[in-house]
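Quick question: what would this complex look like in 3D?
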Amino acid sequence: MAVCIAVIAKENYPLYIRCSANVEDELKFHFTVHTSLDVVEEKISSTGKTSTARAPDMREFYLGQLYPSEDYRIYGYVTNTKVKFVMVVEASNTQIRDNDVRSMFRRLHNAYTSVVCNPFYILGSNISSKAFEKVVAGMIVDEQKKELFT
Amino acid sequence: MSVANYNASCKQHSQILICVQSHGNISLTDFDEALSRIKKHEHLTVTDAGRKINVRFEVDVPANNSEWGFFQPHRRVMGFIMIAGCSTAMDVALLHEVFQKKKETLADFIFDARCFVFGMENSLIQQRNAAMLQYPDVKTWKTCDKDIEEFLTSVFYVLESKRLHIVGDKSDKLPLLTAPFERQQVSSYDSDSRSYRKKCAGRWKKHLADISLLSGLTLDALQNYHSALDMLVSVNDQVWVGGALEGLCVTSAIVWYSDEDHNQSEAGNPALSKQALDPRNLVSSKMGNSATLAYLLKYCIQTPEDFVDRYKEAVINYSRCKHLGVVELEACIKATKVMAIMKKSMEASEFLQNAVYITLNVTEEERITRYSIVADLYRAINFHRKSAFYKRVAAMQCVAPNLNKPNWQKCYQLLQHSLKGYHLNVLGDENKSSFDSELSDQVKYGWPQVRLRVLHELVFSSRRLGKNKMAVRYMLYLLMHMHQHLLETEEKEICAGLESFVGKSTLHEQNDSDVDVHMLYNLPQVLEIVPKPLLFLAQPTILQAEQSTDSVFLFTPSTYQSLKRVEQHIDFKWCVNTPAEIQLQIHNPLHHHTLHVSELRLICESSSEEEKEVDFIESHQVSLDISPNSTIQATLVVVPKKNRTIKIKGYESVVFGVRSQCLFSDMNWIPINLFEVEVTPALPMLQREFSNCNLNCDENECEIEVHFYPGEIKTLCIPYTNISEVNLDEIEIFLSQPVDTHKHNISSAVTTSTKADKKCNWLKLKFNKEELNSQLPLLPQKSIQIPFQIEATNVVTSGAFDLKACSSDVQIKYSCLEAFEKNWCRMVSVKLVVMLHPCLLISNLNISSATRQLNYITTMQVENICDDVIRVTSCKLNCDNIVKPTQLTGIENGHIVITDLDANDKKKLKFQIPTSTLCTAILENKFDPLSITSNISNEDFIQDKFNEAMSLEWRTGSGAKLRRGKINISLCEFNLTNFVNLVTAPIYWEFLVNDIIITESGKCSVAIGEPCPVTIQLKNITEHMISKLDLELEIFQDQENGFREWNMEDCVLCMGCQGQYFEEVAPGSSIDFEIVLMFLLVGQYNVRLKRMSANYDGISDKCSGVLRRTMSNQSNPEVLSYREFSPKVVFTAVRK
């Protein structure tokens, strides 16, 4: 499944980022996610131009694959409020289809919504919700576990 | 081809490549100048052929690149220029050989070559060879333009001839054109097959197209590319299809964007634009006109999408062949550049992504260049984060651990370039317009982990390079902006690092003239700034309030609205030479490090615009330590030196050896841009001398308590010292109306409640202005006594009271001459609290008429209710006046001592006082003695006069402790009788018996049966006419048992009229009432004259009518005044 999941605020700073446990260089993912924001912004601005005629809430949140790299595929998702979700998937993992990613993002969005609904959560602060953590943990399955299952 | 051109662009496809090389001892500057002059000829119009060609000059082209000339002719070196320096003919000869050799090695590729020799003296120059030109100096190379043009034209014509040759060659048997890596494969092809021939023709077409493009025939090129594509696609010649596709794309791009390109280059090259105006160039300029362009566009790729697809196809074709790595890479770079212009960022990023993954065997240096170029391209398509990422990758490559010689300089530079991508604004250009609002958000937030890493790397590399200043800057940035993300160890490390620089940098700074100023707004963070008013005593105030409303309206919303967040005008003033304070709340945001702030002081600006003043203020500096995560309060002291408005704009401090200047206008958490404080001229300053014990002084107010007995008069001196350096020239004292205060608790004098403030009527305050002014001017360090005269008057002394308190605010305003003119002064405020204690109680005041006319009797009871022995004196009365007590103590200081009272002693006093003491005053006041009722309205006046006549005083103690005061009896209760008795009767009676006046004695002895002539003279002693005077003689016997016998008909014979009437008595005149009495029986007879009351109001006559016998104590004749009755005379009738 996913190797890294990040939630990024409207102002493009990280609200939440988590990598799978066996990743040794977490900073690499920070860089990966950070650079992917360029593509996200580009996609938002280009869709923003074309979708003015349509109702704004009809806009597709899922941005698809942002860019491929040698080892990973990076997917993006943008909510109405310009909060971005970025998911990094290993390129070798061919089981994941586009639709799977889409549904994962939707679950993530739901989890994020419930985080925001919490009256004690200050908008724009780092996410530390346990429920959210659990949802993300469900999506990030580290290698060791996978080995255990198989 | 191993060396990639990372600066590849589409334009290069249309440029003839000329290689430039230096040789011999030519200086670098000369070479650069020559090169720049040559490079001006990048565009050349060959007028004869009507073409416009483009040229690219490159220094030291890798030789094997030219071998690709058949595949892509723009890679082939077509001309060779050698720039050499020679000084002797020998050198020239040697050079010639070198040049020839070089020409030979390039002979396969080049069409022409030139050698420019500089440094020969004019006399030595021998132009032997057309290809080798000699000039004394680069600067004097006048024929440069001509030489280069000639050379380029020659190259062009060779190329053109080649082109014409290919166009004209219709032979079937054309050799197969090959890229260098294909040569081995050629033999394997079946040269007779149809596909082979088609492949040949197609490749030639493609080559022709390339050459056409180079020789300025864009249309031909496009047409040929199309036909080449048709042929090559059909035979599936992948590499050449790719080449043709790229050629087509590139040519299209050139057609589309040539205008932009052209404009740019023409703007930069005025010589060229002049050339374009030449009429001979008309042929070529036709190319650019719209009709031709439209025709051209028909052959171009139509849409940008199509362009992307075609180019992608070309790259895919290249990628299928492992030898074409460089070509593919360059194609990607070129495509990205075009797409950046087309604003196709997403597509461009795909090409770039591809370019990154092309594996080439390159040197480390080339790899760095590649990443750097990729980063630049990413920036061109607005992918700043990607750009930054690759810049950083390139930087890391510079210092990769496997390198022998890590290039820290380059690493540092590349890292610096990456800062923008991480929205890091270390160099402090925050206010630049390039940062719009959205971006500044990102500057504010950013991606902490990534930023931290980059900044740490920058710190490391700059330290490595010895750029301590920059290292400090990065570390400060880390502390300022990233401290909440720093780990404890990191924070400590940075702080330690900074501190270690302190020692070095201070040494540095002394030498360094340009100490750059940092703005450490949150290191420490100043949370609040409060300028403090001066101490109350030192505060300057306005001497006289002026009415200074600019507008006729007291409040206008327009001015109110215009009061924006610009400045705060402060309603207090500072004074020259008086230290003023400003309070700062300073916060240390660091979690683990105690911040040492030194040289903290304010940045002030004077309001005067004439000159930049320096000495208008003395700003004292402070050093402090702020422990981690805490806020402290600091007080800064400034001493204004000149009389003008001071603007406090910010503060200055040194933290970690770094000087920082912070302005309030840049600190948005402080609501004020600058503080403006007005400074008044230097003022003197008075300080109270603490000599008196009975004062309660706090910072603002001074309270002096004085204890009084009623009627006491005291002079109170308050001593002050001038503690300033200025003379005190003016002093003014303002006394407020005293108000009653109630003392709840006598011991604690402070608890005076002013709740029920009433005007106090018993306290009189005065000060002596002359005495005060005589002490002026007061020099510095000299003292002054401010005298007050305090008098407690008008205190009711008849009734007992506990304690009265009264206070008055005294304002002493003082100033020096200079400030006085400008209406400024300082003020000392003293509160005088007067405590009034009761001492004497006067009661039972009674005034009755005396037996003697023109006198009255006053009786009163005096009670001493205080603890001291009190002596009652008077300055007006004398021994004769005092009836009781009979024993007199004597005379003291001109005062007659009436009595001494011990504590709680009670005594009755009786005085006989002549009415004349009151008389004059009454007359002055046009007092009508006839009408009593009208006089009652003058009650107070009369009482005062009475009080004055008595002039009673008390005194207690002796020597220094002597206290004295007046006794005010005017406030005692007066009844009507008192009044009547007090006022002089209008008539003075004189009783004559046998022409002897007996008024004084009131006694007369007569024999019975003898006539006794009695004359009563009435004198009008008023200034008024007394009219209708109806008089009647009364004779009665007082039985002295309370009864009077009025029936005297048997005892006394009256000869004459017993009642007489006078119309009027003029003022000062007398009338006589004459009668002869004959007493018949022995006894005592009282005789008096009565004035009938019919003609005046007031007292009714109770004795008229038939009543003949009355009680003697009723309407006691003793009490009756001389208004109605004459003094009675007692006739004692005896037998003869």
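Answer marked as accepted. The interface with chain A takes residues 345-346, 349-350, 353, 357, 378, 382-386, 388-389, 422, 441-442, 444-450, 453 of chain B (CB under 8 Å).
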